[in-house]
Amino acid sequence: MSQENVDVVRQPIALKARSRRGLDERISLRFRAVVTSLTRVVWRLPPGSRLRREVLLRAAQAGFAAINRGDFESSFLLYHPDVEIITPSRLVAMGFDAAYRGREARFDYQRRWTLEWGEMRFEPTEMLDLGERVLFVGRIAGIGLSSGAAVDSEWAVLYTLSDGQVIREQPFFDHQEAFAAARVSE
Fold first, then answer.
1. Where are the alpha helices (DSSP H) in 15-129?
2. What is the pLDDT of residues 33-50, one digit of tens each?
3. pLDDT in tens, 91-148
4. Distance between CA 113 and CA 117 in Å, rounded?
């Protein structure tokens, strides 16, 4: 699917607080190959497709709710085994690597994030389906572990997908920077 010929499909997103895995997540984890195959089929639909929008929205809500509760296995279910994570420059300045590769490296990255920052809550407010990429914008909030300082910041993440799996993740702490990287206007 060529990026030049794709209309941007924007839709609001909100999370429901889930303190544990729902039945849908337990089934998805048990039958990961089936979920990946179904996602691959849905991903071939055009971004404006009602089915694609609904599946993408539900997957995103489940994924962000899972990461907020520390359930990395559920959160990164649709990540390709060789996924690439590009680290924001602010985190590189704090000692994180500039990039990570692989699903296990993504788990380690999130564990380190949690050790450094404690429980941060990702609060996406909008999802933009860009064809082969998806941009989520919102806020990140929490309290730093070592400092105890409250954190409330802009946050966005740009995912690149192939065959329904995340092959690249690029988080941002600035909405303008995220929109520029996605080549879309706010």
1. 23-30, 32-43, 50-68, 72-75, 89-92, 103-117
2. 888 888 899 999 999 999
3. 899 889 999 999 999 999 998 888 877 778 999 999 999 999 999 999 999 887 777 7
4. 6
Beta bridge partners of 138: 124, 155
Q: H or E segment at 182?
A: helix 175-182
CATH topology of domain 7-182: Nuclear Transport Factor 2; Chain: A, (3.10.450)
Residue whose token pair is 């071939």: 44
- Percent composition of the chain: helix, strand, coil (DSSP 3-state, to 5): 40, 30, 30
Show the tokens assigned to 57. Answer: 């929205």
CB atoms within 10 A of CB 67: 19
Q: What is the DSSP letter of 184?
A: -
Provide the residue ranges of all domains of the chain, joining segments of one domain with +.
7-182
Instruction: Identify whether the C-beta of residue 177 lies closer than 8 Å to the C-beta of residue 153.
Output: no
In 3D space, the residue among 107, 20, 44, 28 whose CA is nearest the CA of residue 72 turns out to be: 107
Sorted by sequence, the CB contacts under 8 Å of residue 54 that are 6+ apart come out as none
Q: Say how far apart CA 144 and CA 12 lie, in whole Å.
A: 28
Residue 82 CA, chain-centre distance (Å), reads 16
pLDDT per residue over 48-88, tens digit each? 999 999 999 989 998 999 999 889 889 999 999 999 999 99
User: In the 8-state DSSP scheme, what is residue 148?
Assistant: -
